[in-house]
């Protein structure tokens, strides 16, 4: 079951690229363009900076994933005698993936409510992010990525519910690592193919396919939770 969680997180990160383009595409494109102008270098020479940004972002995901995984393990140990907590978390994670799939497909915007919940924290962090946008080396790029990882995102928050059900701090961190790696191809390529990817993200069929696939994975998580409880 846990291997299935990691695969679901990886695929959700990749398929959620249509959402990443809207949330992070402007950040990636602007940073890449800024570096190219200042250094008069082609995009591929800026690729190490993009890796540094994304490494920082994924590290932030893993840290908060570990916290959520540890919290889930603690709650499970505390409440296991009262109710099937691990199974309940797995079902909730599956339901969140269903909601996320509807959102990615453009059929329901309910998950935006979750994004709004994190905006107060982002308002406190965004001034630091603005100060870090003048990047001169890889270390600064990585630090910017660490802050960038806290950008309010329903996609990330949905995966944190999955991390909560993963079974522990390490498992929660691995869920978010898998998710972050899944988002990596889309965000690395945005800098070079921003126009193409923007058009792709607006394609109804692309959005629908991504949404349906994520919903199927959510149903699979619910199925696994119910099968484990019966077994």
TrEMBL record:
Keywords: Membrane, Transmembrane, Transmembrane helix
Annotated Urease accessory protein UreH-like transmembrane domain residues: 8-219
InterPro entries linked to this entry: UreH-like_TM_dom
Keyword Transmembrane helix attached: yes
Keyword Cell inner membrane: no
Transmembrane segments: 6-37, 58-76, 88-114, 141-167, 173-197, 209-230
Protein name per the record: Sulfite exporter TauE/SafE family protein
Source organism (scientific name): Thiomicrorhabdus marina
């Amino acid at each position: 079951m846990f291997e299935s969680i990691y695969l679901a997180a990886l695929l959700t990160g990749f398929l959620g690229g249509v959402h990443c383009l809207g949330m992070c595409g402007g950040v990636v494109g602007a940073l890449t363009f800024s570096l190219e102008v200042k250094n008069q270098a082609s995009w591929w020479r800026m690729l190490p900076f993009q890796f540094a940004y994304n490494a920082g972002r994924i590290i932030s995901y893993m840290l908060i994933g570990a916290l959520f995984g540890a919290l889930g393990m603690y709650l499970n140990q505390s409440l296991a005698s009262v109710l099937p907590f691990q199974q309940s978390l797995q079902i909730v994670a599956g339901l969140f993936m269903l909601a996320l799939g509807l959102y990615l497909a453009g059929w329901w915007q309910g998950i935006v409510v979750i994004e709004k919940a994190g905006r107060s924290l982002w308002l406190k962090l965004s001034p630091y992010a603005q100060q870090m946008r003048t990047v001169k080396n890889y270390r600064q790029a990585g630090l910017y990525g660490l802050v960038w990882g806290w950008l309010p995102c329903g996609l990330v928050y949905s995966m944190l519910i999955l991390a909560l059900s993963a079974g522990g701090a390490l498992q929660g961190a691995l869920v978010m690592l898998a998710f972050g790696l899944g988002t990596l191809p889309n965000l690395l390529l945005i800098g070079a193919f921003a126009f193409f990817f923007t058009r792709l993200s607006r394609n109804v069929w692309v959005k629908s396919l991504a949404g349906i696939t994520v919903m199927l994975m959510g149903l699979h998580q619910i199925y696994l939770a119910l099968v484990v409880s019966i077994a």
